[in-house]
UniProtKB/TrEMBL annotation:
InterPro entries linked: NTAN1
Name of the protein this chain belongs to: Protein N-terminal asparagine amidohydrolase
GO BP terms in the entry: ubiquitin-dependent protein catabolic process
Molecular function in Gene Ontology: protein-N-terminal asparagine amidohydrolase activity
Gene Ontology annotations for the cellular component aspect, listed alphabetically: nucleus
Pfam families tied to this protein: N_Asn_amidohyd (PF14736)
Organism phylogeny: Eukaryota, Metazoa, Ecdysozoa, Arthropoda, Hexapoda
């Protein structure tokens, strides 16, 4: 019993986002304020972009990262956990796979980085998910709430821009209002954001959750070491995708309808990214063999001149 809502310790987590918002109007107000902030288009300099089924953790004095962020969220949820005393912060892009383990990792990592700061509390912010027709967002919200409630430390929910408050209606179709957010790690400011540059190994990182099959594909990977300023991708494997050639022959609409949890409201570049990922899987059906030779991760460090992540060779 460690989840704190509106400053009150709860005996049980909320059953759904609607009951949370009805019982605690302050979350509606906070979500409305966030939605009304103009969306920032964030470039690559100082950005650590977090893909689906990934998380990253850092501290305010990290000289390599200024902003943690994620976007292209429809039925997924961006989860931010921050220690108010130290400023240590974790951000995850969750889709329902590996939720319990991801939440435990976020809490543990933030606590470790905040150990020297006796004052402060753990503050939780949720952005993403909407009133989708298949109720994927609601199931994910429920699982995230229960995962945090099972932790052994108090966690104060301060933002819940989810469900009905993150939903608008266009042409009779429910759409998410916010597709992405960033957090300024120096100030703790959360803001709506778009990220044209999504970092290195884009197709490889997409392939992990598109192909699936292996246990590691259903885990949420911690991709960043803030003590070294290094981004790490892999190693992992995935199952060869059966019929990948046939998938590539299908129309854009077919791919959209069958490979998205919310085909009516996907971002415009979704199908293009899926096609690039399918081609990557076609070229690398066994990444453990052709991509992660000798089981070595891909390491990247920020290039000070360009601001981009550049590969490190050991």
């Amino acid at each position: 019993m460690v989840l704190v809502l509106s400053g009150v310790l709860q005996e049980e987590p909320p059953h759904d986002s609607h009951s949370l918002l009805q019982a605690h109007p302050l979350y509606k107000e906070a979500a409305s304020q966030l939605i009304n902030v103009p969306t920032k288009v964030v470039g690559p300099v100082g950005l650590l972009y977090v893909h689906q089924r990934e998380l990253a953790v850092t501290v305010p004095h990290d000289k390599h990262v200024n902003i943690l962020g994620a976007d292209d969220v429809t039925t997924c949820c961006i989860v931010v956990l921050r220690h108010s005393g130290s400023g240590a912060v974790a951000l995850a892009h969750l889709d329902g796979a590996g939720t319990d383990e991801a939440v435990s990792t976020m809490v543990q990592r933030v606590q470790e980085l905040a150990m020297a700061y006796p004052d402060g509390r753990l503050e939780l912010q949720l952005v993403g998910g909407f009133s989708d027709s298949r109720h994927y967002s609601e199931e994910l919200f429920y699982n995230i709430m229960h995962a945090f409630h099972r932790q052994i430390v108090e966690i104060d929910l301060t933002m819940a821009c989810v469900g009905e408050v993150n939903t608008t209606i266009r042409g009779g179709i429910h759409w998410p209002i916010l597709y992405g957010v960033g957090i300024n790690i120096k100030t703790g400011e959360l803001f709506p954001a778009q990220f044209p540059d999504k970092g290195p190994d884009l197709a490889l990182r997409w392939a992990r959750h598109l192909a699936g099959g292996q246990q590691t594909c259903f885990q949420v990977l911690d991709i960043y070491d803030c003590s070294l300023g290094m981004l790490r991708i892999g190693p992992f494997n995935y199952e060869p995708l059966r019929g990948v050639d046939l998938w590539l022959e299908q129309s854009d609409d077919f791919i959209l309808q069958h490979l998205s949890t919310s085909p009516e409201v996907e971002s415009p570049h979704f199908v293009m990214q899926v096609r690039q990922t399918l081609k990557y899987i076609q070229e690398h059906p066994f990444p453990a063999v052709t991509v992660f030779r000798d089981n070595r991760p891909h390491y990247y460090r920020r290039d000070e001149a360009s601001g981009h992540w550049t590969p490190i060779r050991f």
